[in-house]
């Protein structure tokens, strides 16, 4: 059922943003520290039986210089540099196998898939451990509360930094047109795409579907579905840490990245989505500073538009990259 605000209310929903005064300096310092490490983007050809595509096993240095895995796929029949889609993965998933990622290279683009550190065991395998020992406070199972007592130690500081470096790694490949790079993802991948858009000023597009990691406090108040419920469970037990938790999360809130993003964006929301409630998605969308549009799927849950949304994504990239 539709449990959130009406669609008319969602279209104008602009909740008060909680933005720390040092938001920009926090991220500038984080990226500066990471860029002290060489990117070391390595693309190793792999044979996987795909006659029409070239596939590469990727390793690059993300947060703290730590190795992050990925896949790079592109059409074998190509002429010159290609536009590139950099994709981030949903919560709990990893990079899987090249056969899991055939859409964008078959559409004629280079496709860079970033593995998600520490994840890749819930629904699709991953190959990148989270090597950072910082966030060692007790946590609710999952990733939402790992290191949550300080923004410096929070898990998503590392993951979002990896995402920025993934764009840099894609652009380092001579087969990629550096001026035509888009970021894309569903759920957690959508939230990470939005963060990347707020931190990288010259992206071609942002394809941000049913985004997670937005408007955290409201999410914990209106849904008990995971992953947001991990935060609720933590706060239920650590009653004295609630404001500390939400202060940390303000550094990673999609609303605060949205006001800094300027690339053309395509969002989506399922009005029956109990995992990423519509008001959390529309809050980010309504604050988004660049050219934007949103596809609304009234009878869908967290799957959103699925293949129907992919059609809209392809239309947008075709228009931008024709």
UniProtKB/TrEMBL annotation:
InterPro entries: AB_hydrolase_fold, AXE1_dom, CE7
Biological process per Gene Ontology, one example term: polysaccharide metabolic process
Residues the entry annotates as binding substrate: 91
Domain of life assignment: Bacteria
Single annotated GO MF: carboxylic ester hydrolase activity
Domain Acetyl xylan esterase as annotated: residue spans: 3-319
Active-site residue numbers: 187 (nucleophile), 273 (charge relay system), 302 (charge relay system)
Pfam families: AXE1
PANTHER family: CEPHALOSPORIN-C DEACETYLASE (PTHR40111:SF1)
The protein, known as: Cellulose biosynthesis protein BcsQ
Originating organism: Flexilinea flocculi
């Amino acid at each position: 059922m539709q449990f959130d605000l009406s669609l008319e209310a969602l279209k104008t929903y602009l909740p008060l943003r909680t933005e720390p005064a040092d938001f920009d300096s926090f991220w500038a310092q984080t990226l500066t520290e990471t860029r002290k490490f060489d990117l070391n983007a390595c693309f190793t050809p792999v044979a996987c039986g795909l006659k029409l595509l070239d596939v590469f096993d990727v390793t690059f240095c993300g947060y703290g210089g730590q190795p992050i895995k990925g896949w790079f796929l592109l059409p074998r029949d190509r002429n010159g540099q290609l536009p590139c889609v950099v994709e981030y993965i949903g919560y709990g998933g990893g990079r899987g196998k090249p056969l899991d990622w055939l859409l964008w290279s078959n559409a004629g683009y280079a496709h860079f898939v970033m593995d998600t550190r520490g994840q890749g065991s819930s629904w699709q395998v991953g190959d990148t451990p989270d090597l950072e020992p910082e966030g060692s406070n007790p946590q609710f199972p999952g990733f939402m509360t790992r290191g949550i007592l300080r923004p410096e130690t929070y898990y998503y500081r590392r993951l979002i930094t990896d995402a920025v470096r993934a764009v840099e790694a894609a652009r380092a490949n001579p087969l990629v047109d550096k001026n035509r790079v888009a970021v894309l993802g569903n759920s957690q991948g959508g939230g990470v795409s939005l963060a990347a858009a707020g931190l990288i000023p010259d992206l071609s597009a942002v394809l941000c579907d049913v985004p997670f990691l937005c408007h955290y406090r409201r999410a914990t108040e209106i849904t008990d579905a995971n992953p947001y419920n991990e935060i609720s469970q933590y706060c239920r037990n650590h009653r004295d840490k609630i404001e500390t938790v939400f202060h940390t999360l303000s550094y990673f809130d999609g609303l605060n990245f949205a006001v800094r993003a300027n690339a053309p964006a395509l969002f989506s929301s399922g009005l029956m989505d109990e995992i990423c409630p519509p008001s959390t998605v529309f809050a980010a969308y309504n604050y988004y500073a660049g050219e934007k549009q949103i596809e609304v799927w009234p009878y869908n849950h967290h799957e959103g538009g699925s293949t129907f949304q992919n059609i809209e994504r392809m239309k947008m990239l075709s228009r931008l990259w024709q």
